[in-house]
Amino acid sequence: MKIVLSLLNEFVELTETPERIAEILTKLGLEVEEIIYLGSKYRNFVVGKVIECSQLSTEGKLSLCKVDVGSSVRTIVCGAPNVAVGQNVVVALPGAILPNRSLEIEPKYFGNVCSEGMICSESELGIGDDTTGILVLPSDAVAGSNFAEYFGLDDVVFEIGITPNRADCLSHLGVARELSAYLGKTIHFPKIELKEESAETIEELISVEILDSEKCPRYTARIIK
User: Fold this and answer.
1) Rounded to an integer, what is the distance from CA 148 to the centroid of its chain?
2) 3-class secondary structure, 125
3) How many Å is the Cα radius of gyration of the chain?
4) Rounded to whole angstroms, what are the CA distances from 26 to 22, 60, 148, 179, 183?
5) What dihedral angle (degrees, nearest 10) is formed by the CA atoms of 87, 99, 108, 113?
6) What are the pLDDT digits (tens) for 46-71?
7) Measured between alpha carbons, how far is 83 from 72 in angstroms, rounded to an integer?
8) How many Å separate Cα 19 from the centre of its chain?
9) Residue 13 CB: number of other CB atoms within 10 A?
10) Which of 49, 86, 51, 80 minimizes the C-alpha distance to 63?
11) Which alpha helices (DSSP H) does 74-171 contain, by range?
12) C-alpha separations of 4 from 29, 77, 85, 119 in Å
């Protein structure tokens, strides 16, 4: 069973490392078989800002871009039709591996121009199907920031082997309850709110009769349509 760290944190505040959480769960009888770091496949992917863009005269439809990646300004040749100055984009720096085709990014020469990375589309990042142009990020994206963190793709997943006698842990809430008990932390149960929308009263639809008030002193009922 897969358990996601961010969802666990909705029920119990965890400051422990994933390795420590895995150790605790295994000690509690919920053996962690694997820890999956989702952000690991986005190493060397950063947010960049296009500060210059001109046509690369020797290569027809290609654009020669200067992209601020926080620590430096990179020269990148881009073939996307929608690239423009001022855009916040996702840059795969040399050493990055494109998730959709396991291609490692390396410096590449176009004539006498060295392209020092790649501006990515949704498809190349493995987060969508759009291949018509590069992914343009909102204006609040900060150049140099980690793409996986910005996009919420840096979560941690625990693969847990649940034994038949622990059906109480076949949910994030069940696992969070175990952690809260072990760590002495407060568990936050989800807030459930019911909104009455019907003008009907329950008495119009159903009635409850208690036949043995000794064994069942009280019985309540609600109708949900």
Assistant:
1) 8
2) helix
3) 27
4) 6, 59, 28, 11, 14
5) 0
6) 999 999 999 886 656 899 999 999 98
7) 19
8) 19
9) 13
10) 80
11) 122-125, 147-150
12) 18, 38, 38, 30
Q: Is the dihedral of CA 64, 138, 47, 101 positive or negative?
A: negative
CA distance 120 to 71: 19
90 pLDDT more than 70: yes
Q: Which residues, 6+ apart, have CB-to-CB distance to 205 below 8 Å?
A: 223
- 115-141 b/e with 16+ CB inside 10 Å = b? bbbbbbbbbbbebeeeeeebbbbeeeb
Tell whether the torsion through CA atoms of 84, 87, 90 and 93 is positive or negative. positive
pLDDT of residue 202: 84
169 and 5 Cβ atoms separated by less than 8 Å: no
Cα 157 to chain centroid distance, Å, stands at 10
Residue type (1 letter), 6 = S
pTM of the entire structure? 0.70
Which backbone phi and psi does 144 adopt, to 5 degrees?
Answer: 95, -15
Helix 172-183, helix 18-27: angle, nearest 10:
90
Residue 175 phi/psi, 5-degree rounding, is: -70, -40
